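Minutes, project huddle
Topic: does the predicted pose make sense with thiamine diphosphate bound?
PN asked that the exact inputs be recorded in the minutes so nobody has to dig through chat later. Recorded below.
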Amino acid sequence: MSRKEIEISPEIQLQLYTLMVKTRATEDRIIALYRQGRIVGGAYTGRGIEGTTVAAGLALAAQDFLFPIHRDLGAHLAKGQTVLNILLQYLGRGNSLTRGKDSGIHVTDTKLNIVGNVSHLGHMIPVAVGAAIGKRMQGENVVALNFIGEGGSNIGDFHEGLNFAAVQKAPFVLIIENNQYAYSTPTHKGFACKYLSDRAAGYGIPGHHIDGTDALQVYSVVKNAVELARNGGGPSLIECLSFRMVGHSAHDDAFYVDKNRMKEYEKKDPIGRLERTLLDAGVLQAEQISAIRQQIDDEIEQATEIALNSPLPEPHWAAEGVYAESE
Ligand SMILES: Cc1ncc(C[n+]2csc(CCOP(=O)(O)OP(=O)(O)O)c2C)c(N)n1
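Predicted holo structure (tokens), as shared on screen:
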């Protein structure tokens, strides 16, 4: 499928870089808080896939719906979420967006049109397609973008959701984050086709296989897919190839991943890659880097302090907002 390259302004390029650095630094803080025993449950990070999550989130307009999954902090931040709200949520505070219910980034923010995920992989695909069609029925020009892992792409709802989206020409974009491991399962044990994006042909929609560590490429391809969807051209399937640079979650040291392979992918770290590109292009100056990092570190430090000093939920809130009141 041919691709139209788009012009990405220097402002957007810098925004991509800053958000990717912020995502990595926030996740590093989340892991530190987890190891201190302050965060319970799991701590999943998107280390290595920031080029995909941030670029895709930034390609959306404010009115568009974002349906992220467990590694997509970058997309939350790109859609406008604050580090403070993320830390309040992880720390289960009473003043978090879920008021202490649910963990990690399973969090909805109606003001930002971010719809939080449920744990069950793939099950948000039909929901996202439904949201896109529902908004169109209400006369609103909204595109819904959803992520799924390469492992999750084998779930039945992937087929049902994408087929329905194609038939309905839904304003929908599905991104497969192919980070080459589904927990400990490598891709060759997960699927036998060469590219997962080739599945798009079976639905009669455009499919793209791109380098998910190249944030500029991801931004360009997703932006085009979003505009196609917005203009009535229907859904797209975009496979972004990257590498999970850590274990599945904070508890997993990825002993099953070849260490040489891990090293090889460190050279393709999406942040270092974009940094080099922007320096070469003169979009970013070497002396700006430490200032950008310092500003982000200060923001995270301040947010951590506020979040740790925020109240825990009241016990009786646990039963509130769970069931509708009976008449
Ligand atoms: C339907 C379903 N099955 C199993 C799980 C448990 N689980 C959580 S993450 C994960 C690995 C998913 O791999 P992939 O979709 O490739 O995403 P990645 O974690 O690699 O980003 C599994 C098996 C789940 N959440 N939902």
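Observations noted during the meeting:
- The pocket of thiamine diphosphate is lined by residues 71, 119-121, 149-152, 155, 177, 179, 181-183, 244, 248 (CB under 6 Å).
- The two ends are 55 Å apart (CA to CA).
No decisions taken; revisit at the next huddle.
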